[in-house]
Amino acid sequence: MQLSKRNGLPVAPESVWSALVNVYDTGQRLVLERIELAKLELIGFARVELVGIARQLMRNLVLALAGGILLVAGWFVLSWGLVSLAASALPMAWRLVIEAGLNLSIGGVLIWLASRQKPPAPEETSA
Predict the structure, then answer these.
(1) Parent domain of 61
(2) Do 61 and 67 meet the contact criterion of CB atoms below 8 Å apart?
(3) pTM of the entire structure?
């Protein structure tokens, strides 16, 4: 089979052009179908997985909040009991001052520890 020439360039037969158009159209359809499939999978993920994740986060938030409230309440009762045992001969006002000072000093130390800068990571040297 011989290709004819037009302006010095070979001209492909009509069947080659139609095959190329079919390949191009098929490629476009494949890309569009994959995009549609990805969209459907994302919608399914959003409906099922994200709802479950949101429920789990809300459950964890409620549990953490309740645990934090009980922890703070327990700390104050424990520290008040220890101060009352150790300083039972002192009047109530002095016991309150000791309790407040104890909580402020421990809280201040914890905040100071939390706000300290971490030392910079050692830089890797290349040999």
Answers:
(1) 15-115
(2) no
(3) 0.50
